[in-house]
Specification:
Elements (H helix, E strand, L loop, with lengths): L6 H8 L7 H21 L9 E5 L5 E3 H14 L5 E6 L6 E2 L9 E9 L10 E9 L9 H4 L8 E7 L3 E6 L5 E6 L4 E6 L10 E3 L10 H10 L11 E2 L5 H11 L1 E5 L10 E2 H14 L3 E3 L16 E2 L1 E4 L1 H13 L3
Parallel strand pairs: 3-5, 11-12, 11-13
Antiparallel strand pairs: 1-2, 3-4, 5-6, 6-7, 7-8, 8-9, 9-10, 13-17, 14-16, 15-17
Length: 332
């Protein structure tokens, strides 16, 4: 790649002729939030933004200072632009309504402001996940109904990975594209165009510490991934970071499957449909892969609650469909 493409230029060039600019500018807004969060993340060991703030979010998880900063930064950048009719954050119990003094927009933004927050204090890669829907009724201000849409209706989704470098990866339904933040220029530059899952895949990602809590069908699937169950077992290495964005990103580049199944005490698993599973399912579909709850495509699940959780299998299609096969065989 010899030409230099900034994310702004790429988004503008890729927008349809019928676009009015709101959608394009919304993606710019998210990129700006990513730069600000990246700046704070890179200085996490130097300033007082590490550690807990003493509050818990709607999920019952202790909020980290960077969690709160990321959540507030995204809201402050996006709530007054006239591009959104509502937002929803994993950190907040209710939807985020656009103040009445600001113009109502045509889009809905859902986001996990800082996934993998338990890793913040130990300098492990973390990330932001986002999805964009169209407002259902453009004549009304944002409602819960505008947010509770199946992931298949997403018009865009993506994530920002804060690691050795900061990357923003997104799709608007025409492939998956990755941009790396150049710290000297202060710009996201196109570094990975038309990302596709490699085949054969290289990795599987799961927390084996919970093996005894899994249903027998899931245990059988895990053994198959390890080459212990069946003549058609793949040759994979195990890699698990514990930050969903980081695990997903590695598997997107190298091929593989990530899963967080149902388990004892967590019949719906841990992954949130609206803020995590849905946007990543949209991305993996665009990259030639597949996401499932073990029985049906994640893209087709209609959320019934803002903080609904789902069992989650995502990656190369053959690996995810094999998980569905084991679950069908186990009648689970």
């Amino acid at each position: 790649m010899t030409a230099i493409h900034t994310i702004e230029r790429f988004i503008f060039d890729e927008q349809p002729d019928t676009a009015h600019g709101d959608f394009t500018n919304l993606l710019y807004d998210i990129a700006l939030a990513a730069k600000l969060i990246a700046y704070k993340t890179n200085r996490a060991g130097l300033v007082d933004i590490l550690g807990r703030v003493g509050a818990t979010n709607i999920q019952g998880e202790v909020q980290q200072k960077l969690d709160v900063f990321a959540d507030e930064m995204i809201v402050r950048i996006c709530d007054h632009t006239g591009r959104l009719c509502a937002m929803a954050s994993e950190e907040r119990e209710d939807i985020i309504r656009i103040p009445k003094e600001y113009k109502k927009g045509s889009y809905v933004l859902v986001f996990d402001p800082l996934d993998g927050s338990s890793n913040i204090d130990v300098n492990v890669s973390i990330g932001t996940i986002f999805g964009i829907y169209r407002c259902i009724d453009w004549h009304l201000r944002g409602r819960v109904e505008d947010v509770l849409q199946p992931p298949r209706k997403l018009v865009a989704a993506g994530y920002i990975l804060f690691g050795a470098s900061t990357m923003m990866v997104y799709s608007t339904g025409s492939g998956v594209h990755g941009f790396t933040l150049d710290l000297e220029l202060g710009e996201f530059l196109l570094s990975h165009q038309n990302m596709r899952l490699p085949d054969p895949p290289a990795y599987y990602s799961v927390n084996h510490a919970y093996f005894e809590n899994w249903p027998p069908a899931v245990q059988a699937y895990a053994r198959w991934l390890q080459g212990q169950n069946g003549d058609d077992a793949p040759t994979l290495s195990s890699r698990y970071i514990g930050s969903l964005v980081a695990d997903f990103h590695r598997n997107l580049l190298r091929g593989g499957v990530f899963f967080y199944p149902a388990e004892k005490g967590k019949p719906n698993g841990k992954i949130r449909l609206l803020y995590e599973a849905g946007p990543l399912a949209f991305l993996i579909d665009q990259a030639g892969g597949y996401a499932s709850d073990g029985h049906r495509p994640i893209l087709d699940i209609v959320p019934s609650d803002l903080h609904q959780r789902v069992p989650f299998y995502i990656g190369n299609r053959a690996l995810v469909e094999k998980a569905e096969y084991f679950l069908r065989q186990g009648n689970y």
